[in-house]
Amino acid sequence: MAMKVYEYGPAMSTNVARVLVCLEEVGAEYDVVPVDMTTSEHKSPAHVARNHFGQVPAFQDGDLIHYGEIATNNARSLLGLIQYY
Ligand SMILES: N[C@@H](CCC(=O)N[C@@H](CS)C(=O)NCC(=O)O)C(=O)O
């Protein structure tokens, strides 16, 4: 069964786009869940529960939520994501 990954954040964000490119590259099934930064939704309690820095992106694979420098901004981590899938 295909893994479903939720990508929280506006796709125009380069930090979000970096993750989306990798998900596309591995052909992962995922949904983009928009976070409206113009209304500071990224600082809302609901989003801070996903990303404790109050930033985008955060991506969710089942119960596991990834966020922050190591998960999304590090080539080795993204390569790990690719290999996982
Ligand atoms: N290195 C971080 C950078 C994330 C980041 O800077 N995200 C920006 C949008 S591209 C953000 O959420 N800015 C709003 C803020 O910092 O309050 C990561 O990859 O998660």
UniProtKB/TrEMBL annotation:
Q: Which residues cross the membrane?
A: none
GO CC terms of this entry: cytoplasm
Please name the top-level EC class of this enzyme: transferase
Q: Which reaction does it catalyse?
A: RX + glutathione = an S-substituted glutathione + a halide anion + H(+)
Q: Does the keyword Zinc-finger apply?
A: no
Q: Which InterPro entries match?
A: Glutathione_S-Trfase_N, Thioredoxin-like_sf
What keywords sit in the KW lines? Answer: Transferase
Q: Which family does it belong to?
A: Belongs to the GST superfamily. Phi family.
The protein in question is named glutathione transferase
Q: What organism is this sequence from? A: Miscanthus lutarioriparius
